[in-house]
Every structure is written in C-alpha cells, then in structure tokens.
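Predict the holo structure. Ligand: acetyl coenzyme *A.
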Amino acid sequence: MTQPAPRVFARIAGTGSFLPETVLSNDDLAKRVDTSDEWIRERTGIHQRHVASAGQTTSDLAFEAGRRALEAAGVAASEVQLLIVGTTTPDLIFPSTACIVQHKLGANGCMAFDVNAACSGFLYALSIADQFIRAGTVKTALVIGAETLTRMLDWSDRGTCVLFGDGAGAVVLKADEETGIISTHMHADGAYQKLLWNPVGVSAGFKLDEENAGVRVLMTGNEVFKVAVKTLDAVVEEALSANELDRSAIDWLIPHQANLRIIQATAKRLNMPMDRVVVTVDRHGNTSSGSVPLALDEAVRSGKVQRGQLLLLEVFGGGFTWGSALLRY
Ligand code: ACO
C-alpha cells in the first residue's frame, strides 16, 4: 500500500532587503509642493522615503534584496527553481524584471516571472510560490517585492508625491515538513480601478491628453483610505477564522506600509498593541510591493521576529487588490 505523501509547507529560510541611498525628507518635499512636515507626519506617519538614483532600476534593488535573502538562507542562486518578482514598476515592458534579476543573480534556467498586483504584488507572488511548493513541483523559491514607484509620480501633485518611496524586500522559501506558510487569502475587485491607477500603457496607449497627463499615479486618497480600512478588517478576520485562531495567537502583524493611521486601525481591530506591529512607513514611505518584505526583513534582522512565532502579513493596493498570509516563521 502506498503511503500518503507528507504534508509540505513553504518555510521562510531567509530574508533580505535593499533601500536606495538617497533619502528625501518631508522638508525636501515642502520645497517642491505646498505641503509641510507637520501635515505629512500627522496624516500619514511618514518622515522620509528613499529614492532610486538616476539609472538605478527596480531590478537593481530586487537583485540586492534577493542576494541578501539567499545569503541569509545559505542557499546558492543555482538552487533556486522558481523566481517571482512582485512589481508594478518593471525595468522594461519585457523581458520581465524576474528574468533580469535571475540573470544578475546567476540563477539562469529556473522559472521566472513578474506579478503585477500593485501594492499587493509581493503577497500575490508569495501565495503563488506557496502553491508550487505545496504541490511538490518546487523545493526552493525566491520571492521578491521591488519597486521604483517614484519614477511614476507627478512631483507637482501633493496628494501623491509625499506618500511613496523606492525599495525591495525578498524571501527564500524552502519546502519543509514542519512549519511555514499556513494559509494565504488573496482578492481583487476591478470595479475600483479609477480610485488608484496609472492610466497609460502599451495597449491603451501612452497618451498625453489632458485627463491622462503622462505616466503618473492618480489617486482619490480619502476614498482609498476608507475602503482600505474596511477591507483590511475583513482580511484579518478571514485569515483568523480560516484557521480557527483567536486574534491573541498572532505574535506579529506585518502590514502594508501605506499610512500609519490605516495600520493603527487594523491593529485596533486585532486588539494588538502597536509594539507587536512592525512599522517602517515612517522611514520608507509606501514602497508598494516592497513594503511587506522590507518590514519583515527589518523585523527579522533586528531580532524582533523569532523562529516559531506566528505572523500575519496583510496588503492592500491598486486594482483594488488585497490579501493576507498567515505563517509560522
Ligand atoms: N500636504 C498638505 N495638504 C494636503 C496634502 C499634502 N501633501 N495632500 C492633500 N492635502 C490637502 C487636500 O488638498 C485637502 O485639502 P482641502 O480640504 O482644502 O480640499 C486636505 O488636505 C484633506 O485631503 P484628504 O485627501 O481628505 O486627506 P486625508 O486625511 O484623507 O489624507 C492621504 C490623504 C494621506 C492620501 C490618505 O487619504 C491616504 O493615506 N489614503 C490611502 C492611501 C493608500 O492606502 N493607498 C493604497 C496603496 S498604494 C498602491 O497600491 C500603489
């Protein structure tokens, strides 16, 4: 009689991240648009953000984050069987940023592709890699969230240019019989397209009419804010009830870093003190797909997150897209 196959989890074997050197403070921005350090801190919790230098691309940031994650995991690039990059700011239309990063790392030959789910890109990518590992198709995967979102900002729009920054984070996933990703819960609703979008592209055209003046992020911030808070409440409940867990079981909440007020609202819903919530938005701004893996790497390297702890990762972004991952680190 054949034995049932052992249950396999995707375990985080190592994390890495990278932020470009140049830092832009709120005061720097106040010289460009009608805003102030006080307004930005009060409404968003952001103090500063990192900005990629001229010629520094998403794949450069992704490569460095991926290299550090491989090093932390003790995994050689040649062992990677699947490489996914969550990004909405790819280097090129094609080839994918994942292919470019793969070559830079020397992981040539493995499956490599990008996922565009705006700010939710990293968790979408993580959930896909999790399925490949659970299915037994892949034993080692590198999942990266990387963005140079500042490249598509309208620097005269104070409603958006103060919010975003550049950066990348990465995790190495390995098949493990003991522990790892417990569940992922990903969603999207395209009805909200026009509340947060960049309305140009290959097929729609890079048109420069009055309504769509160039390649830039357009956002109805206060509407996005309301939906984000409501949706993230539901996301947290979904992950807990799917696993019949009480909110007190979560050791760390690692949320998308868009706005400190949104993070605080989710923490309140979880009845979680802010010292169990990883916050980087103050120093990084919103790095879109980079935000959650950057926060995770920072929490791991600072010794906050320990092996065996239960983590809830959650995201919300353009599309709208949103979701969560519950995992034992
Ligand atoms: N400095 C000074 N004043 C500003 C600024 C600024 N940088 N930006 C907007 N204002 C003004 C507005 O013009 C408005 O002025 P008015 O009352 O005279 O019209 C006033 O401040 C209030 O504007 P609101 O948009 O209502 O301000 P709010 O408190 O909602 O804060 C913010 C705006 C920070 C954008 C918030 O709505 C937010 O964080 N939204 C969610 C963003 C988010 O989560 N995005 C999802 C992920 S991003 C992705 O997927 C790519």
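The pocket of acetyl coenzyme *A is lined by residues 35, 39-40, 43-44, 118-119, 158-159, 162, 196, 221-222, 224-225, 228, 258-259, 262, 286, 288, 316-318 (CB under 6 Å). The chain has a mean pLDDT of 95.
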